[in-house]
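2.7 Reproducibility. Because tokenized structures are sensitive to small changes in the input, we list the exact sequence used for Glutamine-dependent NAD(+) synthetase, including any N-terminal residues retained from the expression construct. No trimming or masking was applied before prediction.
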Amino acid sequence: MAQLRIALAQTNPVVGDIAGNADMLVEWTRRAAERGAHLVVFPEMFLTGYPAEDLVLRSSFAEASVTALSKAATRLADEGLGDLPVVVGYLDRADLAPRVGQPKGAPLDAVALLHEGQVVTKSAKHHLPNYGVFDEYRYFVRGDRLPIFRLHGVDVAVAVCEDLWQDGGPVSVVAEAGAGLLVVPNGSPYETNKDDVRLELCARRAREAGCALAYVNMVGGQDELVFDGDSLIVDASGELVARAPQFEEDLLVTDLELPEGAGELGESRHEAHDGTVITVERVLLSAAPVEPYEPEAPVVAGRLDDLAEIYHALVLGVRDYVRKNGFRSVILGLSGGIDSALVATIAADAVGAERVHVVLMPSRYSSDHSITDAEELVRRQGINSQMVPIADIVAGFEKEIELHGLAAENLQARVRGMLLMSLSNEHGHLVLTTGNKSELATGYSTLYGDSAGGFAPIKDVLKSVVWKLAEWRNAQPGQPPIPENSITKEPSAELRPDQRDTDSLPPYEVLDRLLRDYVERDMGRDELVAAGHDPELVTQIIRLVDLAEYKRRQYPPGPKITPKNFGRDRRLPITTRWRERL
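Resulting structure tokens (single pass, no recycling of outputs):
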């Protein structure tokens, strides 16, 4: 047996900032060296950021990635870090002739081993996910290699993200190849309960491969996606050895005792379980084990509960969208209701209360308690506020145009949206919308009104979960609470006298159960009725959800936290005559 100290760099790269990500690579490698690591592993496509979407189809972008990889290897050596092997994800291109159906330039979701100033070996993701938020058949061609490098006597294999999630491919030949450790760079987005799924997956793959497994994941927000870290190491029996925290950058350093490698160097070909042929490439870095040393105690970070996970994901998603897009501040309308109160609180936790601006925009129908609840939240959170009554502005519109019913109600929302966008334009604030998933699903939002903005923090949060998140946040010690009245009062848009959400919608706990089944699980009408939902309600809600598709296409992005969000996950035609049997 031989000892190895592994460092997993759970980092937050920025898509397109190749030079900045390369700087980060050097800095985190230095930290790993200071901790005495023998190997450091970075996440999937670390140098370019992930997902880079159509940028990967540009030859200039791919060339910049390949050039940065070689320069990074040289720079590590020049700065005295060359003897520490680095596994890092980047964008490469396959040497393939162009053909119909192949992504332009044949991009590769690639991984490389850097050592002593050289790019020692390269490989690429074999399984290309094409479900949920992933479109990788659009972007990449597959790789068919499994690199194994002998480091201090231990054979270390490398696979990429989805290759762990799917049967067959490179991971299925690791046991036959006899590796002692499998390292897997990942770009695995957060959704609820995914941490449990990851651990079970890593444990199963470790047992199948007959070796320890190190899973490193990125952390941070990228448009709609939030990466939650949660990097981990399991031993060959699948037992958890070490685990990094969720939703924060971390260098997880762990000592492992691993079997010494015995396989012959060079290349060999193996048939994988999916029928493909994988080329195993073995290279030698160092044959002799390190001198025995006293290992550090492994770290297993505590787990967050479900509501804490969701809240941290929303905060991280807002923080990184603001930071990575260069905004200095945010602005939103504060109504005194629970949705805007939660968004303001998330924003304050994400970017600091001093950078959050809210506008109270009471109308002729606004209740006194709505104003006082909003003012109380401002006082508690210490955020910036101003009051802009809209009654006279609405009246000015009404003098020039005659509107009735819903059109008259929506005018109020559009005046508010216009005010927020004007203040954004004047001061450079990012406008945060405050609509929740239940409202977006059923079309209870106003185009160019409450839907106007740049980012939607609770877009993927059902109304019933909004209340739970507010109660969870209020239970946290040392945090300024959301006013209780904002949580307990009956929800209303206050666009007409005595308006309540329940005037036209069922109670949210009933509605949200139906929306989970229809939107997130893709159940049809008959399945919904068979699942116990009221047939008349099923008919009503299917109609509302289907008719609102055109609105959702025009809604800002927001953090994904459920198995299926409105955006990258769920893409339906706006123009269609298909309807579930109503």
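The radius of gyration is 26 Å.
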